[in-house]
């Protein structure tokens, strides 16, 4: 098993990084009740870990008996009926799902699953925990319609159901939904915290960490704890005992993106643009989300860019990222960004060096 | 050799046409002037004059650019030598050897080719003999050739070019012919080569011309001429496809690196832009006597002084002349204002065709105005005489023949073609104009009246004739499954564009065979029979078809000899839709049981609706008749109706309606209401506006948008082009816009401007994508124009110009949009990824989302999976990897997915360095493990969007576990004990290592299998008891099996 899973804290007590948050959550466990929660924070900061730990502690082992199923809902929109399928993880106490997978029909999923949950309200002799928890992932990717339908159902069925929403950016969750939840910000762990975690793991695994090694990994992980631990293990696989100046190998796709950045900077021509398009396709085909590509590409370009251009290039990157979200064919927008960059950069080069 | 020179001339001209132009035009024009002007003074009346005439012109060659002597060694070579030479030039021109081969063949087949009936020779287009350059004895042949030549109007241009190629190849050899100063390459500019840059052509011409001039004399061998002619004929006969290919190959001329003759597409962008005439619009087109050019055939070459080529063509046609794309013996004049030394001019010199300048043409027209100037060699009166004569001659024999036409004559498809106006004028005038529609009035009565497609008519005829023997052998009556030979089909499907006589053919043929035609078309209900059919015909009208085909009384009463047999004509089968639910399926069923032949008719054979029907039918594809074929028929009708018209006018009409003879007749009838003389201009004006829309392929549309003249298109034209396929056109544009060098950029050394244009175009494409989302997702279809504007028109307007190749080995044609393919691959991979993801989730070891799985996990996962296989000893490695896979519930497929997803082009394959032996050992070990592997849970999970059937897999997994079925109860109870024990042991422990999972495989009929995975640790009493109970239930149901905790333990 990978370390990142092996050493995942199973209870709120064992959490190292977000101790403060964990302490607060423990109060809910003590109360055996909780409001709707909205966890938000960058990837690899520990949202899911906290949520799962919370649920497990609140419901005990019952929450661990999980089954994975592919549920079908019959949706009747009035004009037509259709079946909607969605994979979900469920136990007798909670349901976890990713409603944005349903595309633009996500709102039906949200409504239906909550209603169904309300119907099968668990009966508890002690009158406690008479609710189920619905964990919705990637709420920021929910369509606006789904979020609107969420806001009413959240209140209506609050007696029988608690929502735990999980997302990367709370800004994409509507105000109305946000105000109905207790917002829990899970920020990215600081590098010190990451080092702390890595050392903890190192101790558990009986490893000798050279001085500064953990710090180097932490720096490279971009404050993503998951990535840091994965890097750590990659290093272990790569070479043990660690050499003092060992660096983890880059992620395959990041490496590819930085190659693209080098390509772009070395030549700005239609031909190069064409070859860059091929490489973009390569990345997209390999399931790399276009947003990540654009972001990584921009960081790579920034490294070698003249200070004068940085501001403009950033602006265009933002422009095209925005358009990319509005549109559906990511490659068009990626390419447009590269074309724009080439045009700006070439002009700059010609103006500077003639 | 010549191609090298061409290149040299082309590049500089392309880049800075302005700089190179002045000198080019100066010398070129000056040089060209002379030979051209010399024509009127040099009548060249006899057949011998070929060389003389040429020699006169040869003198002018000294005006051309300095000559190279290189070619002089090939001067006296005759045909074989030329062939050799050509093949040596193969690099530049792949099609040449082919052409050369064809020459030989054509020569042998010469007689066979001239299959036109003798009566043809009396066509009115015959030019006056004085103008002939060949011996009079050749006249007949020439005419035939001409007809052959022009038979395919749409093809003519392409043909011209294709031939041009061969012609150019021949240039070296033909330097023997003294006319060579008007060099090759010219043909490239013929009217269809939309955009040849004039400067390049001229440059080329000059270079070659010079060389040609150097090689002083030679012989114009008759052999050569014939060969040329024949080849031309050959070319004509090849269908449009071949022509297209030739053209495509031609495109290679502008780009080095041979592409051969592959690929369709018109490749506009490959040609330099033809320049505007230098004095455009400055000269006034003179008025002339009507039909003053009648009977003359012109070929236009190069850029004229003041007229666009199309205009020049119009002028000629207006005065009764005719314009062809390439030179043949019948050509009277080559209209050219400067000698650019192309194939056309070479050929003209070979054949002794005189040159004519634009001014000369105007003079000719002007002179005709007052009276008939004697100096003019082609007086209109002589022509009209000729015309008259031909009409007189138009054989009465023919009429008779037609009357007695019989079935057996059908295969003489040419016969009908050769039928020209069989009634004389006087008679025509008597014809009163009834109220009957002409389309009905002149509907063909016998098969030979049908214009074109005679072979189809014949096939249909044969099929109908043999139908009965084939399918209704006595004794085998009833079921229709006895298709005696595999190829025979019980029904026939006629397809082709509207208005070319499909329905008529079906009717006429069946009539001729004495079959009673029952026509069912879209106006009849053709839906699927409902169950009430038993109630009889009165109860339901919906199934007349079934009635028709199965009701014996209709066809075969007892005395079947007397009753006429029937044939069912299903018209407009592709129109079977909405109202005719299940119509096609029902039709197929009908075909199977039918006792009478069924003829189906449709426009689009490739329609989705007809996919199934096509398998049951003999396919007969009707083509548009050529404009000559149609022209003749129209002339005939016009005469009968007393309309005066030239044949070329009728041909023009035929061309404008794109082969739709019904439409042509309608137009003609309409025009006949107001005028009795139809002139060329009438047709032009009338049909310009109401031109029939033609289907345009997305590639053609993109070619046009990006083409050199893309900037000159009107906005509505662009709109039409990009709307021709609003889905595909933007994709093709997006795929290819990078390849174009925008002509709007002009001088751009650094490439900055082009880059800016690219950025703008890309931005616009991205906008188009956003608008498209609005359209699709929110159904804002009113935005479709905006979408089309942003995604097609703006990028095309920015980038239109010359296409260039970005990758070595790529062909210079627009690629198909790559997005579709990549999108589908992406989706496939996403599904696979989702598979892996759910497996990992089901393993309960990790709880990651998909993105993190791909972005962060994948690298390490792969390392864990492949690393040991590369470094460790085989058995150990395999064991380790299998263990790891089991931990995360990864299957063999997941393994492959992970490998697949981390493959990047240009990066090493993650599987490199793994011995095949190790790989197979892994597979083996994994398969072995699967028998005792209880949790293969995630396999069973249906992933949304994945429509694969799981049955087989489920069976494979369940099998080994079946053995445990009988002891299910025992296990369950044992589990219960264990549970309690473990409860006691680990109260609060949640560590996964201590978990003793037990699982249920519950099968659910609808959903495949649902996996229930219980992690039993410190479960309280109720849950612990519930679980065994459940497994019992499922065990007894016998649908699924549960495993024991012991087995599961790892």
TrEMBL record, chain A:
Keyword terms, alphabetized: DNA replication, Nucleus
UniProt xrefs under CDD domains? AAA
Principal location listed in the UniProt entry: nucleus
| Residue ranges constituting the AAA+ ATPase domain according to the UniProt record | 33-189
Question: Which InterPro entries does the protein's record reference?
Answer: AAA+_ATPase, DNA_pol3_clamp-load_cplx_C, DNA_Rep/Repair_Clamp_Loader, P-loop_NTPase
Family the UniProt entry places it in: Belongs to the activator 1 small subunits family.
Instruction: State what protein this is by name.
Output: AAA+ ATPase domain-containing protein
Q: Which organism is it from?
A: Lolium multiflorum (Italian ryegrass)
TrEMBL record, chain B:
Basic and acidic residues composition bias: residue spans: 1-16, 67-79, 86-96, 185-195, 272-286, 995-1007
Question: Quick one: a GO cellular component term?
Answer: nucleus
Segments forming domain BRCT = 288-369
Which BP terms in the Gene Ontology apply to this protein? Answer: DNA repair; DNA replication
Which regions are flagged for Low complexity bias? 17-35, 1021-1039
Which keywords accompany this UniProt record?
ATP-binding, DNA replication, Nucleotide-binding, Nucleus
Superkingdom of this protein's organism: Eukaryota
List localization entries. Answer: Nucleus
Q: Where is the composition biased (Gly residues)?
A: 245-267, 1040-1050
- Where is composition skewed (Basic residues) in this entry? 119-134
Q: Which GO terms describe its molecular function?
A: ATP binding; ATP hydrolysis activity; DNA binding; DNA clamp loader activity
One Pfam family this chain carries? AAA
Q: Where is the composition biased (Acidic residues)?
A: 223-236, 975-991
User: Which residue ranges are recorded for the region named Disordered?
Assistant: 1-289, 366-400, 961-1050
Instruction: Describe its partners and assembly state.
Output: Heterotetramer of subunits RFC2, RFC3, RFC4 and RFC5 that can form a complex with RFC1.
So what family is this one in? Belongs to the activator 1 large subunit family.
Q: What is the role of the protein in this entry?
A: May be involved in DNA replication and thus regulate cell proliferation.
This chain belongs to the protein called Replication factor C subunit 1
């Amino acid at each position: 098993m990978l370390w990142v899973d092996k050493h995942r804290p199973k209870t709120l007590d064992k959490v190292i990084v977000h101790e403060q948050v964990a302490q607060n959550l423990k109060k809910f466990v003590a109360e055996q009740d909780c409001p709707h929660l909205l966890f938000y924070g960058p990837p690899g900061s520990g949202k899911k870990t906290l949520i799962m730990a919370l649920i497990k502690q609140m419901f005990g082992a019952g929450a661990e008996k999980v089954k994975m199923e592919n549920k079908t809902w019959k949706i009747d929109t009035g004009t037509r009926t259709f079946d909607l399928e969605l994979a979900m993880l469920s136990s007798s106490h909670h349901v976890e799902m990713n409603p944005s997978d349903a595309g633009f029909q996500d709102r039906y999923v949200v409504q239906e699953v909550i209603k169904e949950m309300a119907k099968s309200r668990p009966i508890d002799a002690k009158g406690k925990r008479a609710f189920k928890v619905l964990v919705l992932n990637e709420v920021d990717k929910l369509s606006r319609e789904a979020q609107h339908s969420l806001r009413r159902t959240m209140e209506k069925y609050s007696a029988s159901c608690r929502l735990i929403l999980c997302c990367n950016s709370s800004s994409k969750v509507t105000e109305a939904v946000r105000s109905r939840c207790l917002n829990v910000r899970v920020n990215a762990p600081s590098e010190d915290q990451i080092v702390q975690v890595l050392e903890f793991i190192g101790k558990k695994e009986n490893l000798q960490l050279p001085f500064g090694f953990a710090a180097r990994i932490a720096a490279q992980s971009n404050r993503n704890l998951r990535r840091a631990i994965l890097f750590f293990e990659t290093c272990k696989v790569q070479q043990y005992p660690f050499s003092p100046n060992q660096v983890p190998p880059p992620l395959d796709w990041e490496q590819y993106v930085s190659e693209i950045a080098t390509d772009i900077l070395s030549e700005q021509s239609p031909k190069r643009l064409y070859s860059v398009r091929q490489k973009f396709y390569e990345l997209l085909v390999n399931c790399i989300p276009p947003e990540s590509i654009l972001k990584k590409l921009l960081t790579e370009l920034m490294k070698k860019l003249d200070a004068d251009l940085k501001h403009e290039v950033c602006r265009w990157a933002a422009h095209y990222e925005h358009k990319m979200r509005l549109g559906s064919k990511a490659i068009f927008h990626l390419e447009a960004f590269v074309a724009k960059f080439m045009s700006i950069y070439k002009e700059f080069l010609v103006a500077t060096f003639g | 050799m010549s191609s090298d020179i061409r290149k040299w001339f082309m590049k500089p001209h392309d880049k800075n046409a302005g700089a190179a132009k002045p000198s080019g035009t100066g010398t070129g024009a000056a040089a060209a002037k002379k030979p051209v002007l010399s024509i009127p003074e040099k009548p060249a009346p006899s057949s011998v004059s070929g060389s003389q005439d040429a020699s006169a012109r040869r003198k002018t060659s000294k005006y051309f650019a300095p000559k190279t002597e290189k070619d002089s060694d090939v001067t006296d070579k005759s045909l074989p030598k030329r062939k050799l030479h050509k093949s040596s030039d193969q690099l530049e021109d792949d099609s040449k050897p082919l052409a050369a081969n064809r020459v030989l063949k054509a020569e042998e087949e010469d007689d066979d080719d001239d299959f036109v009936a003798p009566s043809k020779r009396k066509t009115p287009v015959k030019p006056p003999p004085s103008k002939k350059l060949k011996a009079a004895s050749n006249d007949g042949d020439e005419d035939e050739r001409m007809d052959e030549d022009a038979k395919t109007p749409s093809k003519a241009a392409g043909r011209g070019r294709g031939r041009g190629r061969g012609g150019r190849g021949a240039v070296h050899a033909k330097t023997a012919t003294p006319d060579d100063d008007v060099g090759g390459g010219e043909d490239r500019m013929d009217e269809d080569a939309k955009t040849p840059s004039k400067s390049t052509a001229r440059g080329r011409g000059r270079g070659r011309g010079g060389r040609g001039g150097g090689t002083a004399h030679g012989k114009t061998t008759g052999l050569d001429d014939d060969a040329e002619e024949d080849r031309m004929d050959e070319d004509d006969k090849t269908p449009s496809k071949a022509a297209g290919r030739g053209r495509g190959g031609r495109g290679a001329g502008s780009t080095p690196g041979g592409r051969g003759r592959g690929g369709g597409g018109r490749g506009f962008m490959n040609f330099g832009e033809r320049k505007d005439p230098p004095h455009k619009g400055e000269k006034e087109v003179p008025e002339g006597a009507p039909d003053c050019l009648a009977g003359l055939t012109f070929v236009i070459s190069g850029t004229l002084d003041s007229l666009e080529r199309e205009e020049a063509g119009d002028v000629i046609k207006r005065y009764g002349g005719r314009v062809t794309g390439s030179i043949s013996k019948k050509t009277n004049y080559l209209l050219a204002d400067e000698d650019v030394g192309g194939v056309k001019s070479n050929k003209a010199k070979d054949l002794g065709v005189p040159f004519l300048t634009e001014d000369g043409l105007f003079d000719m027209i002007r002179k005709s105005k007052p009276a008939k100037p004697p100096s003019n060699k082609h007086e209109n009166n002589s022509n009209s005489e000729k015309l008259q004569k031909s009409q007189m001659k138009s054989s009465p024999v023919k009429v008779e023949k037609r009357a007695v036409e019989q079935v057996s004559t059908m295969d003489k498809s040419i016969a009908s073609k050769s039928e020209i106006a069989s009634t004389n004028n006087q008679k025509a005038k008597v014809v009163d104009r009834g109220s009957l529609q002409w389309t009905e009035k002149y509907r063909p009565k016998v098969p030979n009246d049908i214009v074109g497609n005679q072979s189809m008519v014949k096939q249909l005829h044969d099929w109908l004739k043999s139908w009965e023997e084939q399918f209704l052998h006595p004794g085998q009556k009833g079921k229709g499954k006895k298709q005696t030979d595999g190829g025979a089909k019980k029904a026939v499907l006629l397809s082709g564009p509207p208005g070319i006589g499909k329905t008529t053919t079906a009717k006429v043929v069946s009539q001729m065979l004495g079959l009673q035609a029952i026509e069912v078309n879209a106006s009849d209900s053709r839906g699927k029979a409902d169950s009430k059919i038993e109630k009889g015909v009165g109860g339901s009208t919906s199934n007349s078809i079934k009635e028709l085909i199965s009701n014996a009384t209709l066809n075969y009463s007892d005395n079947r000899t007397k009753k006429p047999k029937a044939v069912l004509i299903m018209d407009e089968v592709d129109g079977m839709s909405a109202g005719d639910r299940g119509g096609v399926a029902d039709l197929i069923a009908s075909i199977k049981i039918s006792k009478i032949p069924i003829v189906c008719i449709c426009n689009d054979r490739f329609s989705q609706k007809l996919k199934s029907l096509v398998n049951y039918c003999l396919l007969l594809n009707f083509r548009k008749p050529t404009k000559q074929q149609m022209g003749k028929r129209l002339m005939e009708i016009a005469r009968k109706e007393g309309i005066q018209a030239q044949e070329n006018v009728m041909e023009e009409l035929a061309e404008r309606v794109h082969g739709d003879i019904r439409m042509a007749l309608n137009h003609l009838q309409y025009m006949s209401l107001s005028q009795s003389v139809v002139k060329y201009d009438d047709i032009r004006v009338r049909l310009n506006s109401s031109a029939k829309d033609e289907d345009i392929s997305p590639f053609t549309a993109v070619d046009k948008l990006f083409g050199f003249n893309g900037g000159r298109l009107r906005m509505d034209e662009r709109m039409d082009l990009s709307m021709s396929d609003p889905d595909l056109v933007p994709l093709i544009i997006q795929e290819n816009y990078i390849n174009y060098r925008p002509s709007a950029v002009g001088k751009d050394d650094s490439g900055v401007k082009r880059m800016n244009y690219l950025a703008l175009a890309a931005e616009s494409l991205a906008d188009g994508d956003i608008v498209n989302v609005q359209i699709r997702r929110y159904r804002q279809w009113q935005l479709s124009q905006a979408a089309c504007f942003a995604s097609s028109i703006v990028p095309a307007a920015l980038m239109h110009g010359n296409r260039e190749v970005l990758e070595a080995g790529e062909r210079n044609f627009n690629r198909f949009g790559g997005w579709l393919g990549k999108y589908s691959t992406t989706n496939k991979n996403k599904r696979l990824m989702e598979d892996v993801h759910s497996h990992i989730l089901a393993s309960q070891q990790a709880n990651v989302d998909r993105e993190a799985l791909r972005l962060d996990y994948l690298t390490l996962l792969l390392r864990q999976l492949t690393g040991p296989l590369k470094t460790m000893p085989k058995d150990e490695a395999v064991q380790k990897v299998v263990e790891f896979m089991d931990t995360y519930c990864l299957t063999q497929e997941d393994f492959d997915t992970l490998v697949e997803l981390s493959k990047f082009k240009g990066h090493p394959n993650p599987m490199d360095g793994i011995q095949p032996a190790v790989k197979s050992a892994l597979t083996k070990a994994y398969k072995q493990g699967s028998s005792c592997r209880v949790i293969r849970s995630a396999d069973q999970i249906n992933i949304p969007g994945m429509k694969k059937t799981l049955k087989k897999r489920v069976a494979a997994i369940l099998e080994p576990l079946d053995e445990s079925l009988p002891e299910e109860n025992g296990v369950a109870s044992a589990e219960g004990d264990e549970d309690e024990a473990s409860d006691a042991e680990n109260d609060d422990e949640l560590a996964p290592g201590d978990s003793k999972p037990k699982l249920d495989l519950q099968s659910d009929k609808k959903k495949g299998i649902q996996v229930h995975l219980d992690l039993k640790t410190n479960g309280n009493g109720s849950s612990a008891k519930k679980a065994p109970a459940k497994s019992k239930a499922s065990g007894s149901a016998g649908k699924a099996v549960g495993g024991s905790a012991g087995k599961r333990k790892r």
